[in-house]
Amino acid sequence: xxxxxxxxxxxxxxxxxxxxxxxxxxxxxxxxxxxxxxxxxxxxxxxxxxxxxxxxxxxxxxxxxxxxxxxxxxxxxxxxxxxxxxxxxxxxxxxxxxxxxxxxxxxxxxxxxxxxxxxxxxxxxxxxxxxxxxxxxxxxxxxxxxxxxxxxxxxxxxxxxxxxxxxxxxxxxxxxxxxxxxxxxxxxxxxxxxxxxxxxxxxxxxxxxxxxxxxxxxxxxxxxxxxxxxxxxxxxxxxxxxxxxxxxxxxxxxxxxxxxxxxxxxxxxxxxxxxxxxxxxxxxxxxxxxxxxxxxxxxxxxxxxxxxxxxxxxxxxxxxxxxxxxxxxxxxxxxxxxxxxxxxxxxxxxxxxxxxxxxxxxxxxxxxxxxxxxxxxxxxxxxxxxxxxxxxxxxxxxxxxxxxxxxxxxxxxxxxxxxxxxxxxxxxxxxxxxxxxxxxxxxxxxxxxxxxxxxxxxxxxxxxxxxxxxxxxxxxxxxxxxxxxxxxxxxxxxxxxxxxxxxxxxxxxxxxxxxxxxxxxxxxxxxxxxxxxxxxxxxxxxxxxxxxxxxxxxxxxxxxxxxxxxxxxxxxxxxxxxxxxxxxxxxxxxxxxxxxxxxxxxxxxxxxxxxxxxxxxxxxxxxxxxxxxxxxxxxxxxxxxxxxxxxxxxxxxxxxxxxxxxxxxxxxxxxxxxxxxxxxxxxxxxxxxxxxxxxxxxxxxxxxxxxxxxxxxxxxxxxxxxxxxxxxxxxxxxxxxxxxxxxxxxxxxxxxxxxxxxxxxxxxxxxxxxxxxxxxxxxxxxxxxxxxxxxxxxxxxxxxxxxxxxxxxxxxxxxxxxxxxxxxxxxxxxxxxxxxxxxxxxxxxxxxxxxxxxxxxxxxxxxxxxxxxxxxxxxxxxxxxxxxxxxxxxxxxxxxxxxxxxxxxxxxxxxxxxxxxxxxxxxxxxxxxxxxxxxxxxxxxxxxxxxxxxxxxxxxxxxxxxxxxxxxxxxxxxxxxxxxxxxxxxxxxxxxxxxxxxxxxxxxxxxxxxxxxxxxxxxxxxxxxxxxxxxxxxxxxxxxxxxxxxxxxxxxxxxxxxxxxxxxx
Length: 1065
What we know:
37 helices; eight-stranded mixed β-sheet; 5 domains; alpha/beta; Rossmann fold; Endonuclease, Chain A; single chain
């Protein structure tokens, strides 16, 4: 047999290395002929690689037999089957549980159909597709191709269930297959259809025709801007295991499925099982998504209105129809609402600030927040005061509240000509509040909730009476920037805390903001030697470089070159350039004007008229670029901006995001924002980490990996590219910072001096510097040692305390149950409480702490008690308490107590390690349990009094960041339904399989714990999130079984995007 490896061609491979290939590689390496990249195979991926390798070898052997023409057809077939049966015999010898009878018969060994007899009449044979059920096929609409529509008809006739996913449905296309769909559904076949009102292209009559078919369900997305469904998929489920799916460019229209030059790929479950798993999982997730609403004949008028709206715009709709569509929060908005809940109920902070770029839905979040708060207070009324400084904002805000609350008469306006008849729910301008001395004759506690929009105006005198007189239960501030108009922080009004910040990536993916194309341009200047003070470059030094140095003109010219290379046509550019100072902005405007590019400079000293004129001229195209200095207010809120220039280094991630957000507003004809960020050689303290984590919207990613792999996690529709030298500057900066102990000492000493030589706590250090605690502790460091080495403290630190702290620290950041955190803090601050007899709950907390520390007596192997751990860690007590407070103040979800038939200290949505889980469930040696599925019989535990199955689910079972073979085994279908796959050998008739199936009848308990992957970016084992008890809904298959469970508690927004592998959220 010829070896494919005899010629080693340059290029990329994903190839199993045989002994022959290994010899060829070794020989070429010895001769210094090649460079080779190899990697270990992930155990979860190995079976796929090896089975494909073996299949190729078997096929080669079978083809070799077929090529020998010395035998008859019968002998040839016999020889081929004989070879296969030899392999089967070998496998059965290695795997006895495979069972007998796997050998292939020699006569007519291909089964095509089975039909059970109902009577003596021979049934009509199944109509099978012309194309194979086991091999994929591409339809191109070519003249020699099989007709797509005829093949779809054959698929319909042999399917058990059908799912259709199309962005629009035309009556002409439906008529081509309607008789066969009607025949299919009349026989009891189940048909599900997902479609949208996208572009108003769907024919309402086509939808109603489908909805009237028996055993048929139709669901429609009316939110086309956020859903953006362009997928087309026809899925034919078969209980035999030979399901097929057509995926491509054909909507359900006559042209698309008959004579159009459309490309459609037929996938088969037999040929590409992992792809079919993803197809099924994605459809199931879409089907159960709240964005797709069930359609009945009662919704016909609603559908017609929505299609009319998409075709002709909202002006042709009646005002009353706006309230036909109920509004629900997006999951990222729900996550912020959850965060507000833990801020208030967990940390007793009822003054809350939400920071987000204009256009990301802050007002909607405040409306949902009010709705939650008002519901929790029923039957008591909840009085609302909403303050803004412009009539338009108040009108839009009241409209938003009415939509969310589904109350068309909610709220009164008090601005301009509007005179309220009631003060219960008031939308008021700050000017009216002040001019009418509104607080007079008002009880300071009259309003339960006060919301202040554009809170950065709070520095103005007119706001002071509002903020000092009233005492609402909740004060909620909304702003695009945490800096006041006088450049002071507004966090002082909120006890120093920002409650929530909306990630731009979330808003972009929901089309609340437009996508961006980001280019990191290599800067002509070198900033590595520029003076650094107070956590940033010295502005005067930057100004010298950008305005007065020999390279100033070269850099200005470079901006034009970059615009020409990456930007739009100069006739179309509407750019906003952020500069370091007034002189820099003026210089850039002057230079651009000298080059024929109309530009202006504005800053804090520009008059309102100058700002309005600049904005108007940019919108009309008279001005191409506005150069701005630290302006975040409405004066540069210009949706038409299609280009943003970062012409100065911005070390504050908040400022960077707000500047970027100024260009992300949606506007007619604007498909994306072009971002040119000039990246220079930087001071080693300059922070690139947060910038690129913010751009991707994933705070836990490796920035280094993102850069080296061309930013695979950029938000949907966005693009991030770095020029070669810009990338090298960033990577060099990262190399100097990450894990560099000297860098941490410098940052600590800087903070120590800023605080007036007061030693910062660990919490203050991480809060002020933005250094990721997990990153810091990954290097087997302690904050106590850092303080000693920085020479700001002089205290003892034993080797024992230091080593234990190095092991314990990162685990503290996984504790997110407030009762447990409170109890741990209480014991550390007052160890004498251990002398008192504890409750059952407190004793379990102490046991779980043992398995958090994992501190053993080396002689006996026994885990040390809480009391012993306090003794062993006495030198780092302050550090531990500070980290526990840090964790308490950074929780973003309220855990919930759970009712089980036996005592449980674990709370739903809390995170726990395997050992902590089984310790809480009464196992004295939880480390002995290694399985991901554990059946707890009442005899095995001193706590469990009802038989319980514990599922420990790792969603991405592969060590790789992405795996297409294991990603669709376990996932959430929506926030109440979870798709779970049993262990591979579990059959539906085995005792275990029967226990799963009969859960509801027997009353067994199933507890679900989920984590995204086995380890975090630093190699630490991740804990599991407790999603609570689940209940059996249905199952299919055997060895393994696939089971759908219903959760008692909804998966919260924080975790739904993690568990939703289809990425619908």
